[in-house]
Amino acid sequence: MALSRADARSLDAQDPLAPFRSRFIEQPDDVIAYLDGNSLGRPLKAIDQTWNTLATQVWSQRLIRGWTDDADGGNWLELPEIVGDELAAAALGAAAGQTVIADSTTVNFYKAMRAAVNLRPGRKKIIVDRENFPTNRYIAESVASDLGLELVWLRPDLATGVSADDVAAVLDDDVAVVTLSHIAYRSGFLADMSAITALAHRHGALVVWDLCHSVGSFPITLDADDVDFAVGCTYKFVGAGPGAPAFSYVNRRHHADLNQPIWGWLGRADSFEMEQGYRPAAGIRSMISGTPQIPGILAVREGARVIGEAGIDTIRAKAVRLGEMVISLVDEWLGPQGYRLGSPRDSDQRGAHVSILRHDARQLNDALIGAGVIGDFRAPDAIRLGLSPLANSYEEVWSALEVIRDLDRAEYPGQDRPAEYFDRAE
Ligand SMILES: Cc1ncc(COP(=O)(O)O)c(C=O)c1O
Ligand SMILES: Nc1c(O)cccc1C(=O)C[C@H](N)C(=O)O
């Protein structure tokens, strides 16, 4: 028996995270459910205040001195490292001094991949998977092409993702880097970061993890797992806003030999001496290239603060419970309408979104947005339902599934559905 609306309400009544919903700026009245926080999180009221303070009290008053004045526990030039440490403590399981907020995930991923390969001279292979986010696949191609390396492609089943066994099957001592997404962008499959990292290390390879879909939704343990490099975005579950700067983590044991490819002035030692020749700054600072994006970094600080306050374990527990609710409703209501589950059924293998598959997903998703349920379509046949434990209520998610069910009834009344309805176009 699927949960009823009353059941969803009762889950909300017991939800320790329910008070956090009022931290967000209200969504428009015509939105029944916003299930796209795994693409762009909703804004916190605190960010509105932070940006207002930045413009009216800090930027306008300190002017250029903001870069070097010691206020807010540091100056703007230091904020990438300061807020990097704050995010690391709240959401990455990483000790201070190994994380910076800078650039986009794409750019950070490029830097991390090149830096990792530089640490393994003479090795000729990079392992990457076909289900990885496009930017990761393209950057891996670009790095391999520039450096004359071979790409070894994993081809995971969409719903089962990349296992340690898949990696073990192609790993040898000629592999420089294994790169994977911790949570797959389409299926939500959760990779075993600890096991795969240990496996890569046994062959002398390094790992570069993309944490875009896990940061802020899943307890990450970068130091404990001895991860080498990790990158991820802050506009999803961290909620720092469209185009907010990403983060880059490099394990301390690589700092002495770290050599990333974009040699900008702010990653140099003694930047303001403006000297000839590049000499990397000490530590994680050398992952920076150019001027930090201060409004975005301050928004990351607010996101990290709220995650720290809520507690990442509590966030994860609610993500699991929301996912289970969605899957039970999919089974009961949507299976008979020709939808299939496009995510792992087992919560231990699933992140904070659930994908449902149907051949006409693109049109369905457009219709859903029109009906006030905002998820997203991912080619070729997936509707992703992103579950944001801080912003979504159980009832909101339940209502979304009800809308999906009823939309389909309206479109295809009765039991006589066209045959192609059930045949997934592969
Ligand atoms: C897994 C993953 N990696 C990388 C990116 C790309 O990040 P960006 O476009 O911010 O560089 C995204 C989302 O866009 C993503 O989901
Ligand atoms: N970064 C995005 C953008 O600039 C426009 C639209 C969507 C996005 C996304 O974040 C996509 C997202 N990373 C995904 O998992 O599909």
Automatic annotation (TrEMBL):
Cofactor(s) needed by this chain: pyridoxal 5'-phosphate
Record-level Gene Ontology MF annotations: kynureninase activity
Keyword RNA-binding in record: no
Gene: kynU
Entry function: Catalyzes the cleavage of L-kynurenine (L-Kyn) and L-3-hydroxykynurenine (L-3OHKyn) into anthranilic acid (AA) and 3-hydroxyanthranilic acid (3-OHAA), respectively.
Family: Belongs to the DegT/DnrJ/EryC1 family.
Organism: Saxibacter everestensis
Complex and partners: Homodimer.
Alphabetically ordered keywords of this record: Hydrolase, Pyridine nucleotide biosynthesis, Pyridoxal phosphate
Entries under InterPro entries matching the protein: DegT/StrS_aminotransferase, Kynureninase, PyrdxlP-dep_Trfase, PyrdxlP-dep_Trfase_major, PyrdxlP-dep_Trfase_small
The keyword Cell membrane belongs to this UniProt entry's keyword annotation: no
Catalysed reactions listed for this entry: 3-hydroxy-L-kynurenine + H2O = 3-hydroxyanthranilate + L-alanine + H(+); L-kynurenine + H2O = anthranilate + L-alanine + H(+)
Pathway: Cofactor biosynthesis; NAD(+) biosynthesis; quinolinate from L-kynurenine: step 2/3; Amino-acid degradation; L-kynurenine degradation; L-alanine and anthranilate from L-kynurenine: step 1/1
Enzyme class: hydrolase
Protein name, per record: Kynureninase
Enzyme Commission number(s): 3.7.1.3
Residue ranges of the TM segments: none
